[in-house]
Every structure is written in structure tokens, then in C-alpha cells.
Amino acid sequence: MLLPIILFYVLFKYAPMAGEVIAFKNYRFADGIWGSDWVGLRHFHMLFESVDFWRVLRNTLLLNVYSLVFGFPVPILLALLLNEVRKEWYKRTVQNLLYLPHFISWVVLGGIVIAVLSPSTGVVNLILKQAFGIEPIYFMADSAWWPVVYTLSGIWREAGWGTILYLAAMASIDPLLYEAAKIDGASKWRQIWHITLPGIRSTIAILLILRMGHMMDVGLEQTLVLQNQSVLDVADVISTYVYRVGLQNMNYSYTTALGLFQSLIGFLLVVSVNQLIRRFGERGLW
Amino acid sequence: MRKKKIGTTVIAISLLLALLAGCTGSSEPAEPASTPKAGEDTAAEAKKEISVSILDRGEVAAEEGSYENNRWTRWINDNAPAKVNWIPVPRTQVQQKLNTLIASGSAPDLIWEYDRSYISQLAAQGAIQPVDGYIEKYSTTYKAYLEKHPELKPFLTINGKMYALASARGQETVANHGIMIRQDWLDKLGLKAPTTVEELLDVARKFKEGDPDGNGSADTVPITFNYNGVQILRAFFFNNENQWYLEDGRLSFGRILDRYTDSLALQKQLFDEGLIDKEYITDTNFQRSLQLWTTGKSGIYLGSWTMGAEFVDLKKNVPDAKVVPLEPVASSYGRNGLYQEVPANMYIAFNASMKEDKAKAAIQFLDWMLEAGWEPLRIGEPDVHYKLVGEVPQKTDADLFRKEVFYAREYAILNEWDPKPEWFSLMAAQDPISQEQAKLKADGLVTAMKNNYRRDIAYNPDLPEVSQLIATFAPIAQQIEAKIVTGGGALSPQEGMADMRKEWKRLGGENVEMLVQEWYESNKQNLK
Description:
- The complex is a heterodimer.
- By secondary structure, chain A is mainly alpha-helical.
- Chain A has helices spanning 3-14, 32-35, 42-49, 51-71, 73-84, 88-99, 106-116, 123-132, 146-171, 175-183, 188-199, 201-212, 220-226, 232-235, 238-247, 252-279, and strands at 25-26, 37-38.
- Chain A is built from 16 helices and two strands.
- In chain A, strands 1-2 form a two-stranded antiparallel ribbon.
- Chain B is α+β, with helices and mostly antiparallel strands.
């Protein structure tokens, strides 16, 4: 019975990968994938010699590192907190409110972020001024603040959604363990540290490995919505670069080379983190 | 047990076959109804079938049908010398969608876009074919039309061959950018309409301080704008960030010219004195700006030659507002017009896979469209949708027209639609706001066409090295510009321009300039 599924993957996921050969060719519409001329590694040379490529690569990696360091633990923390809530209706309400931003598109969320952070009319600057007497900060147009806004808005949208898997993992922990701990006089903190966290360890490990596969991409939508001309030195990322250079100028081979490079790095990261996690005695993806 | 196994194998195989069938179905050119339906078309056997792309703007009402099939596509098929299958492409991603269709071999026979550089990219990609021969052999109407409109030729020619057909734009679509000013504010403060950059600054300052909206505080933002705004400020100085200019016989890129520095200086001054929105940088969709204008908090709007909702909403909020078009102000370089479109309208190209007989049918269809087909597609049916008042087609019912005719305009891929300014008030609805709007539109069009917009060469060089360089240079330049304008004293326009030129050089600008010059020398005769 597995056969159709395997076939599906072969036909629709693996077969199209043959198209990656255009990274080594000079693809033209008229010649097609197979008819275009071979150019070897020319597109890769172009890529690595281009100054802008390193700039967008650095920006992409930095934004991802911020999201990983600050964004990854947030759903875990939220799940721990939610797990301790005893009132079922309260837990549900909070959970739903946390999910909500996930279902709103970036266009709308971006508009809200820009309005809230506006130096003249935004509520954040109003509070800063009233409470601390700080002069208005133009967060969105400042290259130092922009990555912060980017990271926090990403957390705002996705953290609630990310709690689902952790909460499910926590639900599967044997309640007997907690009872035994209580009898032994363990405090709430001890219970979280010695039972809940070890209970979701493997889930955390798997999600971390999967997250590593995305270290090289940054969502096009979020970036385009939040980006503006005065922060392009930190906000120009691989996806916006591909859009500008590749699709708008029909450099399909060049952007495929870039895509291939991106996937390779992602693959390497997944493999090495997987190894690392297995060293720690956890089961990895394989 | 064994039986069960056989059963699963059978299911698996049939699933596999279904998958394979689905797969081949999706990779084959999916030309809907490209095989003539037997029996149905025997009467119209002479009619060849062609397919043509059409922009899907989501304007066809459900009762009208769809972009593929509605009263006007049926009308075309009844009257045109060919049967046309329309292939809708979403307006927001025309080029991506067309590229996908082309790459998979299922693109329509006639592919059209408003963007000439896209057509020239397709020609370089070998996706479209030259049309000179077909026009020579099969065309009558378009051939004569082209002789009457020699100005179109350079736009249709790529590397010496004609790759597209296009009709000339009416002045309504040649006119593009425009400036609007609140006459009631000028009157209230006893000011004259500005004619130079200095006067514009002066008027803007008075708007800011003089409390023209009469709410008791100096809270107006004198100048607001939409996405045309920055280009309007550039046009005062005979510049556009994406155009190439002939300077002493050499082509130079607008964004690194001295005139550009002057334009940045003006923009900086406007910002520093608070004459434009201090947060224009993050107003990337220009909603803040629009809101300031429509709520009567702004006196000068840099936008288009005509106003739609911007005017109606303003009148709702401020019934006494009086808006008039403002002629572009003169700078130290003189008075330039604001951005105008080139004469060529939609560029219609022929798919490279099209055979002679189909090309012939396509040419006959296009000839018919230019001769007779386009008019009903723009104005509808006589007595149903319009009545002739003199030579002006006056709408009988604006709502009916919007529902049944408005969406059809782009099926007229060749047309001679050219409404005159004096038509607008006759064509518009009779209520006072619509009439005032029509008057503004007529004045706006006259104002927009009064001054010539500087364009030294018909179209920009379409070399891949150029687009590559500009694509990488643009974000760097944008950021430097933002720093010049909003950074206070951090970076003067002169210093910023020096930085920009340095970046231009670093990215290989000098080499590209040489290529561009070569390109210019060899295409000179086509560029005027």
C-alpha cells in the first residue's frame, strides 16, 4: 500500500529535481531544459564573486540566528506556562488568542506593526515618552532596531502556533510521574525541570533539526511588508534578491544556482545538527 | 490471504496509472479546446482558432460569465475573422504566469504586455518570433496604420526586427503623473499658484504655518504624494532615476547625474522643514499620505493627472475643498513636463511556436480589431450603453456600463480610443461632484499635456548587464538617498551623491556605460 505514496514522491518531488540541472546550463525558453547550453560552474562563480550575494547571505543568516536564539524558546516557555494553567476555559481562551496572529496575513500584521511603532502616532513611542521621557524612536527606519522588530513580529505571529506540538507532547507525559514527584515533595519548578522538560526533550530536538533546514530562507512576505528603503543594508535578504535579480530579469539559471546552494547549506546544517543531537543521546530524525 | 495481496496490487497499479495519466496531462501543453470540436464548427469552418492572453483584473461580474466566456468574447467570435480563446493571466503576476506558460509550452499564440522590456526579454529568450513578414504578407489595416504612425516603429523593433504590434495611446493614457493643489487654501492665504521650485517651497511653508484648514493649529502636512511623488520631484530637474539621458552625445544614467543631486537637495529641504510627512519612509503603501489628503490636512498632492477616490473622499470630508491641477514648477534647468507614457500601447507578440497559417489568422484578427472591433469593447452597444451626443458617447447608465462594458476594454488589444478633454463632462454622471470631478479631469489632462516630458531615447538599453547592474544598484542607492533626505546633517546631498557614484563604479558601472554607449551607437536610428 505504500507504493502509490512512494510513486507520488518520486513523480512530484524527486523527478522535478532533475530541473536543477539548469543551474549548470544557460537556460533559455526557446531551448528548454535539455536543449540549453552547458556552462559548468559559471553561475556559481558569478554568485560567489558578486558582492551583493555576500551581503544578502549575511543578512539572511543574521535574521535567522536572531529568530532561532530568541524565537525558538518562546513556544516552549509558553507551552510550559499554559500547561500549568488549571482553569480549562482560561487556558483555551489564552491559547486561541495566541494562535490568532498566525491566521492573519503579513500585509495586515505589517501594517499594524508600522502603525504601533510610528514615532508620531504609535502607542509604543507614546508610552516611552510618557513613562520614561524618551524621545520618539523611528524603529522601522533604523538599521539597528529593524532586526529587533523583525524578530519580535515573527515571534508574535508564530509563537502561539508553535505551542501546539509541545502541548501535545506534554499531554502524553504519564501523570503518575507528577503524582510520585508530589508525594516526594517536589515543588512546581522541580516538577517542570525533572518531568515536563525531559518529557518533551525529543520533540524539542526534532523541531530544532527541522528549524535548521530553514536557516537559509527568510519569508519573502514578512520581509517585503516590513522593509523600507532606509534599512536595506540589513533587510535585503536572499528571497528578495532572487525576486529582484532572477525572476524580474529572467535569470533562471543564476537563481537556480543560488537555490541549489541554499538547499545544500540547509541540508548540511540539518545533517550536522542531527549528528550533534544524537551525540547528546537523543533520537534524531534518523 | 493471497487473494487479498492480488487485490492490493491491482489497486496500487490502477492508482499508479491514474497518477501517470494525471502527470502526462499536466506536462502536456494544456491548450483548452485547441482541437476544433467536430460538428459544432462546420459552418464556420473557415475560421481558424487562435489563443490570446488577457489580464484577469477580477472585474467580470458573475452574471456576465468569466474572462474566457462573456458577452464580449462571444461577440468577438461572432464578428471577428478568427475564433479566439482567451487565456486569463492574473493582473498582479502577469509576467510570472506568462513565463510559466511559456516554459511549459502552453503559452497563448498572442502574448501581450504593457512593458516593452518584458517583450524584449522574451525575444532574447527565443520565446517569440519576428512579425515583419506576416504584416507584409497578410495585413492591410495595420500596415496602413503603421505608415500613419511611424513613431511606433522604434518601440516595436528589437535588434532590427519587428517583434510586436501596438496601437498608439490616446492622450488620456499618454498623460500620467500630475500635481493637484487646493485652490481654496491659496485663496484663503492670498497666494498665487507657484511656478518655480522656490515659490513651491514658499507656498508649502505658508500652508504649514498659515492654518489653512482653520482648525486653529499649524498641523498641516503641506505636500503629500503617492508612488509617483518622488519621480515628480525628480522630473522638476529633468531627471528620472531609471532613465538614461544623452549628455554631450554620451548616454548617462539618471541616478548619478548632477541634476539628481539637486533633486535630492530639494527633497531633503522639504523633509527638514517638515513640508512632507516625516514618516514617508515607512508609508510604503502611501495610505498615511492619502489619509492626510482626503481628510483635508494637506494642500498639494503629487500623484496622477486625474483624481478618483482621492477627490470624492476629500469632497465628502471637506465639502468646500476646491482642487485644481498645478503645472509642474520650473527649476534652475527650466520647466520639464511630468512623466508621460511612450506612444505605444499594449505590445502584442507572436508565440515562437506559431505556424504560418495561425499567424495569418492572428494578423487578420488584429486587422479586424483595429478597424472595427475595438469600439464596442470600449463604449458598449449603442442605445443600450451609450447615446451619441455630437461625437461624444454618453453613458446611459453608469452602473450598467460598469457592470457590462467596463471589463471589456482590454480585449481591444489594438484600438484608437482617444477621448478629448471636453468629452469628460458630457460622459460623466450629472451629479455636482461627478461634474466637478470631470472638470478637474479635463483641466488635468490639458495641464499634463502642456509641457513635454524629457526623454532622450525612445527606450532604455535592454542589455542583460544593464538590468543586472540596476537591480543590484537600486537598493544601495535607495538607502543612501534615504540617509541624505532623512538623516539631518549626517550626509549632504553632494557627499551622498559621491557615495552613490563610488558604489556605481564598484559594481562595474563604467563597464556597463561603455556597453550602453556601444548599444546606443548601433541602435541610434531606432531611438528617436
